[in-house]
Amino acid sequence: MNVLDPKLSRRTVIAGLVTTGLVLGYVLGEGKTLSMNDIRILSEAKAAGGTVTDPAGTAPDRYTYYPGTEELAKDEIRVIACGTGMPSARHGQAATCFLIETGNGDKFIFDIGTGSMANIAALMIPYQYLDKVFLSHLHTDHMGDIDALWAGGWTSGRPNALRVWGPSGAEESMGTKYAMENFLRFVNWDRTTRNYKITPVPGNIEINEFDYKGENQVIYDENDVVIRSWPAIHAGDGPVSFALEYAGMKVVFGGDTVPNKWFLEYAKDSDVVIHEAMMLPDQYVNLYSQPPQLAWRTCCEFHTSPQSFGKIMSTINPRHAIAYHFFNEEATRYGVYDGIRETYDGPLSMATDMMVWNVTKDDIIERMATATDEAWSVPGTAIQPPPQKGLPNPMSDFIKAGKWREGYEASDRMLDEHAKKYGLEDQDWRKGYWDNQ
Ligand SMILES: [Zn+2]
Ligand SMILES: [Zn+2]
To answer: If you measure from the C-alpha of residue 139 to the centroid of ligand 2, how many angstroms do you get, rounded to a whole number?
Structure first.
């Protein structure tokens, strides 16, 4: 078993580990007493994919991706599932979000569904580089955490504005521009106060709305990365699917859609195809509290069933298929998997959050990311500027007059030390600390 086998699935790795366990059990079952010699013999056991040949050595090629520890090769793409679940929030699985990193250093967030920012943040990528978001459509399970990226990055040193690409709709009020402009109205208090206290530029959103009817149209072309869109069919006009092309490779992100002619045509010749595969209707009834009529429509009227997912993949034959948009657990995954296998027998990942794929022309390797639950932001190369002078203070004299001076002054000694440490003694904010508020 070679962990670099492009067709390797997690199932194969697990099977390998089980086999190793059986060998161990057999040797010990002979009635021997375990001695150091036995341990040396057994030390060739596979450790999560790598061979450990020295008891004091390391385990290479472990089935784990440790974020921030591997440089991407120039001709490599890394895909990280930061949300693979459903609109209904769950601790273990966020709603749709895939981060795609290209070997030129660019990073693209495809959908940013509810709860997904905690997973993105756990990768500890500087917010400066997490500035490009592509929305497949405007359901909240595909854009609900835009607020956490927007404000979280702003307070964590991001110096630049966010850039959002998304489709138009049948009318103006159903498009991305309308959604993002009104998002900025929704967060107006947040934005106005942070504009004043931090600095305004990171709170801006560059909105790039494109025609949802465009067929394989180029919506992004910078730095050797091309992103295209084509129409998807899902609940109303507007949704799209995307293809990212880089280094002669193509990764397709389907968003939500039923099987459609555009996908068959434009997702052809792909290296990786990410596409929804919903749970079975019975699973929606028994686990998701949906009435039976909604259950089959959720599965199969405005989404893609496992069987239809398989049919799509066996028709376009990608190098690797990724199924997502189902709660992936014991009660569901076998039904979804068996459904897919009715119509597709090619390379497949059953995605869950923090699954990672490294894609080159030679290999596609699936692993799980191991990330901290207590991530901090990491600085990038650019420094966020200080507050912009001249903005109106959003706090009135009436509120300011309620401040308690002695309470403030309790911090003076500690702040003097901070100012000295960072050379801030002469700056206005230190001198005017009391009045500035
Ligand atoms: Zn949707
Ligand atoms: Zn969805």
So the answer is: 7
